[in-house]
């Protein structure tokens, strides 16, 4: 597997994880005030995944993919 293929696979995986994190954050907001204690953890997880996805997309673009 080439570096570009590996980066594409990583972007695909991170995209799925980030989408799930976004849905988790959305679901949490829909249930408020129940579960308000989870807001920092869920938001931090979502933020981290989108940061990693952005980095992976930039690496893929730089690799010519």
TrEMBL record:
Membership in a protein family: Belongs to the UPF0437 family.
Domain of life, source organism: Bacteria
Coiled coil region boundaries: 4-31
InterPro entries: Helix_hairpin_bin_sf, Put_N_fixation
Organism: Paramagnetospirillum magneticum (strain ATCC 700264 / AMB-1) (Magnetospirillum magneticum)
Record's protein name: Hypothetical 77 kDa protein in fixX 3'region
Keyword line: Coiled coil, Nitrogen fixation
């Amino acid at each position: 597997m080439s570096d570009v293929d590996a980066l594409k696979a990583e972007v695909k995986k991170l995209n799925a994880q980030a989408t799930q994190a976004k849905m988790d954050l959305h679901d949490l907001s829909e249930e408020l005030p129940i579960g308000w204690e989870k807001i920092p953890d869920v938001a931090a997880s979502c933020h981290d995944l989108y940061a990693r996805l952005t980095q992976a997309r930039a690496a893929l673009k730089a690799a010519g993919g």
